[in-house]
């Protein structure tokens, strides 16, 4: 197996790791960096549970070789809010009971954060389109959509 030097930035922290050619980004994040927010769901890119933001684009980390993240900026759920200072999306998901088992929530938060960063006042259709790549087996999506709408209002500062 060929080894490669992977230099990349994750959640604002620079990393340099030696990775094998076949190592997936998901495995490097979880097993080598200890970032457990991205989950393994289907391993085929169909469920979106492993989503992370790479250079301001949502990617399924189970489909990306780690070396493809060379010189890239990554954001995982661990960089969004904190236990004592929730991001407005995290707060809204809690208030709207948009989290059931929680398995998909890191990916839902990341994809909707990306949406709100680019579209501060999204329509319901835009919200649905943004979350369409993330499979939720519990909530039926209604509460998730309402939470995103609520967070958008809070982030914009509307009354």
If you had to describe this structure to a student in words, what would you say it looks like?
The chain has 159 residues and is α+β, with helices and mostly antiparallel strands. It is built from 5 helices and 5 strands. It has 2 domains: 3-79, Roll (Ubiquitin-like (UB roll)); 88-156, [2Fe-2S]-binding domain (DNA polymerase, domain 1). The chain has helices spanning 25-32, 88-95, 105-118, 124-131, 142-156, and strands at residues 3-10, 13-20, 51-54, 57-60, 73-75. A 5-stranded mixed sheet has the order 2-1-5-3-4, covered by helices on one side. Strand 1 (3-10) and strand 2 (13-20) form a beta hairpin.
Condensed summary:
The protein is an alpha+beta fold.
Tags for this entry?
159 residues; alpha+beta; Ubiquitin-like (UB roll); DNA polymerase, domain 1; five-stranded mixed β-sheet; 5 helices; 5 strands; 17% strand
- In N-to-C order, the SSE pattern is EEHEEEHHHH
**What's the mean pLDDT score?**
95
What's the story with the biggest beta sheet?
Answer: 5 strands, mixed
Strand content range: 15-25%
Class computed from helices, strands and strand pairing: alpha+beta
Radius of gyration: 16 Å
CATH architecture descriptor name of the largest domain = Roll
Got a strand count? 5
Distance between the termini: 57 Å
Strand order of the largest sheet: 2-1-5-3-4
Enumerate the spans where pLDDT stays under 50 for 5 or more consecutive residues: none
Q: Which word captures the global form?
A: globular
The tally of domains stands at 2
Can you identify the CATH superfamily of the largest domain? Answer: Beta-grasp domain
* DSSP helix fraction: 25-40%
Supply the CATH class of the largest domain: Alpha Beta
Number of helices: 5
The CATH topology of the largest domain corresponds to Ubiquitin-like (UB roll)
């Amino acid at each position: 197996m060929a080894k490669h030097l992977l230099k990349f930035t994750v959640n604002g922290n620079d990393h340099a790791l030696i990775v094998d050619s076949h190592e997936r980004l998901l495995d490097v994040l979880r097993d080598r960096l200890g970032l457990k927010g991205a989950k393994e769901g289907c391993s085929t890119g169909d469920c979106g549970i492993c989503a992370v933001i790479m250079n301001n684009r949502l990617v399924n980390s189970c489909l990306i070789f780690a070396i493809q993240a060379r010189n890239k900026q990554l954001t995982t759920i661990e960089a969004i809010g904190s236990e004592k200072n929730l991001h407005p999306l995290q707060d809204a998901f809690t208030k709207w009971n948009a989290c059931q088992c929680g398995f998909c929530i890191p990916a839902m938060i990341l994809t909707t954060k990306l949406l709100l960063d680019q579209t501060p006042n999204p329509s319901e259709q835009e919200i649905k389109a943004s979350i369409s790549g993330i499979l939720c087996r519990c909530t039926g999506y209604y509460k998730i959509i309402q939470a995103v709408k609520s967070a958008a209002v809070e982030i914009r500062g509307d009354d």
